[in-house]
Amino acid sequence: xxxxxxxxxxxxxxxxxxxxxxxxxxxxxxxxxxxxxxxxxxxxxxxxxxxxxxxxxxxxxxxxxxxxxxxxxxxxxxxxxxxxxxxxxxxxxxxxxxxxxxxxxxxxxxxxxxxxxxxxxxxxxxxxxxxxxxxxxxxxxxxxxxxxxxxxxxxxxxxxxxxxxxxxxxxxxxxxxxxxxxxxxxxxxxxxxxxxxxxxxxxx
Length: 204
Fold this sequence. Notes:
Blueprint: H1 2-11, H2 23-33, E1 37-41, H3 51-62, E2 67-72, H4 77-84, E3 91-95, H5 102-113, E4 118-119, H6 121-128, H7 142-153, H8 157-164, H9 168-182, H10 191-202
Parallel strand pairs: 1-2, 2-3, 3-4
């Protein structure tokens, strides 16, 4: 799979400066090559646990400008929330099955390098679908739920308007309604702050 990902990236005109098979070498390679983006599995040697996630934390602690995309075999929203931490900019989280599509992978790379976020739609759907005793999401209209999901994935208002084939002004109205109904601070209107606010809300 590692070789397949490298091939997809090269075909898209993206330079692959290193390819490693364990978390220790991943950190070393990032220190040596100082890449724009690191793509890693969550589970890697040596421990075959969340070594990849730990590695990107170490990498971003030294070079926070390094964008990261973490791949997971299983849909686990807690990993996504853990990865985002306090700053969703330059962060991507995709299910492995999605990277079979070159467009999805290269789009995620472009978004995180541009300091946006790229979170897997299935992960967001899982967060949206969680059962709660009193679910405030029930107050949202179907269109507002669509907009909320795309916000959480990291799309801008312009990006949402293009995906839903509505005007940017319509998206802005939906976003305002969502924040009001969910009691989220309007101070979180900045792109990264609003993604963080939505993810924190969904992860409660």
